Structures are given as C-alpha cells and as structure tokens.
Amino acid sequence: MPQRGSTNNSKPTAQKRRRFPKEFKEEAVQMLLDGHSATSIAARLGLSGPNLLYRWKRELIGQAGKTAETLDGRVRELEAELRRVEQERDILKKALAIFGREE
Predict the structure, then answer these.
(1) Is the dihedral of CA 59, 47, 15, 5 positive or negative?
(2) Phi/psi zone of residue 3: left (φ > 0), alpha (ψ -120 to 50 degrees), beta?
(3) Could you read off the pLDDT of 4-30 as tens digits, one per residue?
C-alpha cells in the first residue's frame, strides 16, 4: 500500500528553453507599440506570458539608447493624458445629455 503523500519516482521532464530570433522579438515588440495588448500578442505568438514581451521591449529600447527611452516615456505620458481627456469628454457628454433634457 503506498504511503500517504508519496509521489512516484519519475522526474518531470525539464522543458527546453526556447530561443527566438531577433527579428521575431522586434516584430512582437512592434505589435505591442502599435497598441495591441501584451496578453493577446503572447497568446497569438505562443509565448509564455506578457512579461516576456515587456522584457524584450525594455531590452530593445535600452539598445536604442537615450533618445528611445525619452520617447518611450513621452509616449506613456501622452497615453495617460489621452485617457484622462477621454474620461473628461465622456463625463461632459453625460452632463450635456442630463441638462439638455430639462426643457
């Protein structure tokens, strides 16, 4: 009778680490920069997860130098500002609809 909590002696097979060509990484990062979600890109390309994409992006930007880092930061700032302005617009549209009814 097997002991409680014991496992069989077979070891799980170690997964071989996949290597991706530079061109593949660049295209995946470009998809990320084009606005696709990291999760959808990872699923579509069969990657282990979105963190891999973010690491590739960081590496590629680091290789491109200071200008690329500055541009990436500015893009993030502008995207955040765009989200804020869109929220303000949506609130104003709702307010206009509410106050427009009071005639």
Answers:
(1) positive
(2) beta
(3) 555 555 555 666 778 898 999 999 998
Q: 53, 38 in Cβ contact below 8 A?
A: yes
Give the pLDDT confidence score for residue 71 in this predicted structure: 82
Buried/exposed code over 40-65 (b: 16+ C-beta within 10 A; e: otherwise): ebbeeeebeebebbeebbeebbeeee
What is the rounded CA–CA span in Å between residue 63 and residue 44? 26
Half-sphere exposure of 42 (CA within 13 A, CB side): 13
Record the pTM.
Answer: 0.54
- Other Cβ atoms less than 10 A from the Cβ of 28: the count is 23
Measured CA to CA in angstroms, residue 34 lies from 41, 53, 93 at distances of 11, 13, 28
